[in-house]
Design goal:
The chain has 201 residues and is α+β, with helices and mostly antiparallel strands. The protein has one domain (15-199): Aminopeptidase (3-Layer(aba) Sandwich), CATH 3.40.630. It is built from six helices and eight strands, in the order ββαααβββαβαββα. Strands 1-2-3-4-5-6-8-7 form an eight-stranded mixed sheet, with helices on both faces. A hairpin with a 5-residue loop joins strand 3 and strand 4 (89-97). Helix 4 crosses helix 6 (187-199). It binds coenzyme A.
Length: 201
């Protein structure tokens, strides 16, 4: 059996994949504008009918850019982006310690968004694994993520081995929205399993 590279710190940084050779890498301060643009675009397409129109229409790329610039200034290591050949960003996600330790998972994936025209090509999977690798590197062996209950993205998390842990309202766009919490109790095992499947054994 061939050896599998499972070093969590380095496994995904700079990894290229897909016919268009997208790259998953840690974000830089200069990515804030592209991240803000993708966030507004994907919120509007994903949450139409789930969040009030006034919330979605009221979003501003400028405000989101400023907010991401603030996060990146302090924690750029916790943000990963998918970058197409030529430099266009196609998706992003961020992570860190679980915001409510009562749930028993060490880490949390706070956001994960892939541009609508780039969805379904494997970028979400690679971004999620990069965030898991980052969490492991920071000492978190388990993680969870909140997803709006009506969002079909929860099937993506199930596909990636997430187990439905609980339901509860979360604040989103300034209001409480019914959400599902998915958990992974062993991030290293997820990364190893995906690495083996990528290597074809
Ligand atoms: C959810 C999201 C991050 C997934 O990323 P993606 O790049 O589209 O997904 P991938 O191509 O990596 O899919 C990985 C696997 O999950 C499956 N999958 C992806 N989305 C799915 C869905 N909505 N329902 C069922 N399966 C899904 C894919 O078919 C693929 O399966 P495979 O292992 O058989 O190949 C992306 O679609 C997205 O940003 N959606 C809109 C925003 C959103 O809802 N974000 C999550 C907020 S919590």
């Amino acid at each position: 059996m061939a050896a599998v590279e499972t070093s969590p710190a380095s496994y995904y940084d700079g990894a290229a994949m897909g016919s268009e050779m997208s790259v998953i890498r840690q974000a830089k301060l200069g990515d804030a504008r592209a991240i803000g643009r993708i966030e507004v675009e994907t919120w509007r397409s994903t949450y139409a009918g789930m969040l009030p129109d006034r919330v979605l229409l009221g979003m501003s790329e400028q405000r989101q850019t400023a907010s991401w610039a603030g996060f990146l200034r302090h924690r750029s290591g916790d943000v990963y982006v998918a970058e197409a050949e030529g430099g266009k960003l196609l998706g992003f996600g961020n992570c860190g310690p679980q915001r409510d330790p009562a749930f028993g998972f060490g880490g949390e994936v706070y956001t994960l968004y892939v541009s609508t025209d780039a969805q379904g090509a494997g970028l979400g999977r690679h971004l999620l694994l990069a965030l898991f690798a980052r969490l492991l590197h920071c000492g978190h062996r388990s993680a969870m993520i909140w997803v709006v209950r009506a969002n079909p993205a929860r099937f993506f998390y199930e596909r990636l081995g997430g187990k439905l842990a609980l339901h509860r309202p979360i604040p989103l766009g300034g209001q409480a929205v019914d959400a599902a919490g998915y958990g992974w109790s062993d991030l290293r095992a997820v990364i190893e399993r995906e690495a083996r499947s990528r290597a074809g054994f």
